[in-house]
Write a structure and sequence with these properties.
Layout: H1 55-63, H2 72-82, H3 97-106, E1 113-119, E2 125-131, E3 137-144, E4 149-152, E5 156-158, E6 173-176, H4 179-192, E7 200-203, H5 213-224, E8 236-240, H6 244-253, E9 258-262, H7 268-274, H8 277-280, H9 283-297, E10 301-307, H10 315-324, E11 330-336, H11 350-360, E12 366-369
Helix pairs in contact: 1-2, 4-5, 6-9, 10-11
The structure holds iron/sulfur cluster.
Amino acid sequence: MSFMDPVERFDNTAHAGRMNADAVDGTDRTVDRAVERTVDRGNDRTAPALVGLSPDQIATLLAELPGGERRFRGEQVFRWLHARRAADFAAMTDLPADLRQAMAGRFSATELELVTEARSSESTTTKLVLATRDGAEIETVLIVTPRRTTVCLSSQVGCGLGCTFCRTARMGHVRNLEAGEIVDQLLHVHRREPMPERYNLVFMGMGEPLANYERVIEATDLLARPEGLAIGPRRITVSTAGLAPEIERLARERPRLKLAVSLNATTDAQRSKLMPIGRRYPLERLMRAVQFHVRTTRRRVTFEYVLLAGVNDSLEDAERLVGLVDRIPCKINLIPMNGDGMTEYSAPSTEALERFAHYLYPRTYAVTVRATQGRDILAACGQLARLPAGVDRGSPPA
Ligand code: SF4
């Protein structure tokens, strides 16, 4: 059996670069479905959105409407927004008509507006480009395989960590997303695509989720609410480039969320070159945080390792990697670089990939090789970005 057999299709991607990608502009030859920007009818885009609020917070706002509303309305509206995915107050048919009208006059049901939807030629990957109220665009990716369905969420507009192999890094850090903007990404996916009852969520879209810790946690708490989407923390993976103190905080505060760490290098010099965050948190500090996480949560961690031809794919790298993760219950997810013409990096040869993986197999707990999904719509790992006009966007691989 070749090592490619137990392919893990995206179960625990990491920051191994973002899965999203640069513009799907509707003219891309691989896009089989693109939609024009759609304004959500019945939603005033300047009005405060109710998505992203808890039932209690919604109840407090509704109590301020003329005539006031009783507290149970908060949960009723929350249920409509999340469990029934209503994008318009008019759809909330078991609410009194005057309340629906009053809400439409004061609030918006949604945060984000769909700009474009694109599906990869193999039809396993769908990318939504969504506009925020301040005009930024973020990307959300749905990956469907026979074994599992995964939604990849963005946590920031752009990213300030500057990993040299990642397209999102080219945007720089624009701003953190609010909890409602994170939750609404998933609601948009639900409205556009048939979704199974159980699926996984990964914070591997644009941005470093642990650099937007509070809002990401707020969003996962909202997603877990039983009267809403009821997505438990065990189905959510937070992927970090290596913010050591936040890894420890996550272990203490939300031990049931899964953790993935984007490692990508086995020496400090090599890692700092690929991931400047390595200068702030050298490998010794990062691995200490990971060990704390594993000890505290009693959960396995996933290490993402993007293989870059001639950079980190040698047998010496594999040997050092084995030493680094020694005694840490973990899975190593190998990700061949998604070349996109924008960076100096390219995918390793099949021989190099096999040599690397075969070295790891008998010496580590678990190794998987990620099958690349969505490369043709630039929705694969490391390809997400919304770049301004004039910036070389590269092109999807042939
Ligand atoms: S630049 Fe940001 S989004 Fe890209 S891989 Fe690094 S941490 Fe992740």
